[in-house]
Amino acid sequence: MLVCGIDIGSTTIEVVLHNGERVVGSRIARSGAFPAEHAKNAFHELLSELNLRRSDIDRIVTTGFGRNYFSGADRVASEITCHAIGVIAEIPSARTVIEIGGQDSKMMQLDEMGRVREFVMNDRCAAGTGKFIETISRTLNLPVEETGPLGLAAEQACEISSMCAVFAESEIVGLLHQGKTPADVLRGVFNSVARRILGMAGRIGLRDEIVFTGGVARNAGVHKALEEITGHTIRVPSEPHFTGALGAAILAGREIVGTNRIIPSSVQEVE
Amino acid sequence: MTTMDTRELLQKVGVNLELHDQLIAYNNKLFEATIRSAPNRPAAMEYFDSAFHASHSSRVGEILDYRTRGGKSIGTFCIYVPDEIALAAGVLPIPLCGGSHWPVDYADKMFPRDICPLIRSTFGMAFSETCPYKKLKDASVGETTCDVKKKAWDLLGFEVMEVPQKKAAVDRDLWLSEVIRFRSFVEKLSGITVTADRLKETIKLVNKRRRVLQTVNDFRRLPNPPISGLDALLVSQIALSQDIQIFISGCERLIEELHQRIKQGISAYQHAGPRILVAGTPSPMGNAKVHYALESSGLRVVADESCTGMRYYRDLVDESPADLDGMMKAIADRYFSIDCSCFSPNKERIENILRTIDEYDIDGVVHNILSFCHTYNVEAGIVDKALAKIEIPSLKIVTDYSFEDIEQLRVRIESFSELLKPVMT
């Protein structure tokens, strides 16, 4: 069996090939101005890299913002379901999932079976999302990958009071003019993202074990701020940006074998 | 009526034709993309589709003719204004709540931007001279169901009915006195006295409209509803805008066809998606956004709790009183039973929602909250407490009329659907 999960997000596209037991290949691409085309290219590039043909793939499940625009998908599934499945596959004890992507942030509560019981999601606003951090990194003239380590090195976090990405940007310009360092500003930004997430948690609660996924989970500064502000230890999967695509691929595999289970077989055996 | 006639007519009632063309183009495009996009609609929906377009053409002509013959009319903005009394005094109530996104920015002329889209749409249409009914009324009657509305009526000099905020005996007395005062107001407007005979007739007529609406919506209790939530919403929207007799006939034809569909086993839906109760704020004509987002994502809206749903037709006026005072009290009682979130407390609403969940075999509740409607927004939390006890999940959607957030809404709606019916089946 060979199945594929594709997470077409607002900022990046992840493709995961799975044989029902483990990942056999993966690829990441920018969504850019033509996300549907870029997703198709990424998929075919991964196939040729592995010397595979389209006909070798038994099933494709797409998720993410562009999930409905990939021709050839066998089905679509929401990011919330896919991230839950992807997280549980690696961390079966997960009960709360925090997912921060390019333009939204979500939080889910899972039950003992790994099923989504409740979820919250931000509205049409960039606060507390990857877009927010990207905007700030541009203001600071820094590659987004460098923001995490730099923020961690801060001596004293600035207080960023604005939750709005647009207003926060002007607030930050003001702070820089006052002589604050980019590191202190970034730490303040990460704290503000974490507070936003804590606000969402107020509605559905935080239950251990807490797992942080999505592209922003690669940012160690945000991870640390989340742990400090929530007071909980938070785990990050090995490749958090691939969680959604992994969940989609696992979902595709389960649909082929027809199992009506959400938790991986290994966990069920233990229970 | 030909196109030429319509344009002449609109010009006659003071409409800005150029802007009105833009409004209609916007509304029609959305109407095609939402309500008319659903597969397998009953043929009898044709009347309701044409009535949608008629509200900016032939219906305007009907009301103009009626007024030329000396008839009086009032603009209304809430289902608390008793139609029976206005009609008995020979005054035609015209509900004017806006459901289109197109005019909202025109409301900025007098209103701040951070108020609900319903008020912005309504007055945006009035201020852009695209509301054909603006000059077809002798007065406007507002009510005190929300803070923005209260101040809007003051700003525009409208007549106001006081809807109390609690449901004690003293509030009931106040409401009855307001209903009696409304009778004097419409009587003065038309010069026609409301008699027991006339009122008995209009009570029966308006109850008949409620009964046909109840019958249409009862079909949605079935395991395979023969009518979709989108079409049922359109039926309610048309009830508020069209001639009452013609509307009743249109519903009777629809009911006949729905009976036929059941016999033939025809469902409005291709898949047995989760059964949803949409609760909260109204969706006036032009707005079917949340219903569309839900049904085009595979969920089935089988019940509506809003003012464009059950709140509008659930309760009848008691037809038994024979004297005028008894009838007035029966009318006041009926309208006082409306479970608007402006009341504190509003436990009747919780009871009604729980009963509906049982009667319509509801899998999940979607709170459809217009932005800035604080009372429905906060009350959703009270509803959720009751839902948690019976383990019915809910999803709250706070949004306006624009389609810019439709994809974000879909993520939440699809996730909610997967939560109700796990995908691994």
Structure write-up:
The complex is a heterodimer of chains A (271) and B (425). With 271 residues, chain A is α/β, with parallel strands linked by helices. Helices cover 42% and strands 19% of the residues of chain A. Chain A is built from nine helices and ten strands. Chain A has a five-stranded mixed beta sheet. In chain A, a hairpin with a 5-residue loop joins β7 and β8. Chain B has 425 residues and is of the alpha/beta class. Chain B has 17 helices and eight strands. Chain B has a four-stranded parallel beta sheet with strand order 2-1-3-4, with helices on both faces. In chain B, strands 6-5-7-8 form a four-stranded parallel beta sheet, sandwiched between helices. In chain B, α12 links the parallel β5 and β6. In chain B, α3 crosses α10 and α9 packs parallel to α11. Chain B starts with a helix and ends in a 5-residue tail after the last helix. Chains A and B meet through α2, β8 and α8 of A and α17 of B.
Question: Can I get a quick summary?
Answer:
The complex is a heterodimer of chains A (271) and B (425). By secondary structure, chain A is α/β, with parallel strands linked by helices. Chain A is 42% helix and 19% strand.
Give the tags.
heterodimer; A: 271 residues; alpha/beta; Nucleotidyltransferase, domain 5; 2 domains; 9 helices; 19% strand; disordered C terminus; B: 425 residues; four-stranded parallel beta sheet; 8 strands
Count of separate DSSP helical elements of chain A: 9
The biggest beta sheet of chain B is recorded as:
4 strands, parallel
Report helical residue fraction of chain A.
Answer: 40-55%
**CATH T-level fold name of the largest domain in chain A:** Nucleotidyltransferase, domain 5
Overall geometry of chain A comes to: globular
The CATH architecture category of the largest domain in chain A equals: 2-Layer Sandwich
Count all strands of chain A and give the number. Answer: 10
Uncertain ranges of chain A: 260-271
Give the termini distance of chain A in whole angstroms: 27 Å
Given this structure, which CATH class of the largest domain in chain A is correct? Alpha Beta
Q: Which structural class do you get from the secondary structure elements of chain B?
A: alpha/beta
Structural class of chain A: alpha/beta
Q: Biggest interface pair, residues each? A: A-B, 23 and 16 residues
**Proportion of residues in extended strands of chain B:** 5-15%
- Topology pattern of chain B, helix = H, strand = E: HHHHEHEHEHEHHHHEHEHHHEHEH
N-to-C SSE series of chain A? EEEHEEHEEEHHHHEHEHH
The Cα radius of gyration of chain B reads 21 Å
Q: How large is the count of helical segments of chain B? A: 17
Spans of chain B of at least 5 consecutive residues whose pLDDT stays below 50 are none
Largest sheet of chain A: 5 strands, mixed
Give the strand order, joined by hyphens, for the main sheet of chain B: 2-1-3-4
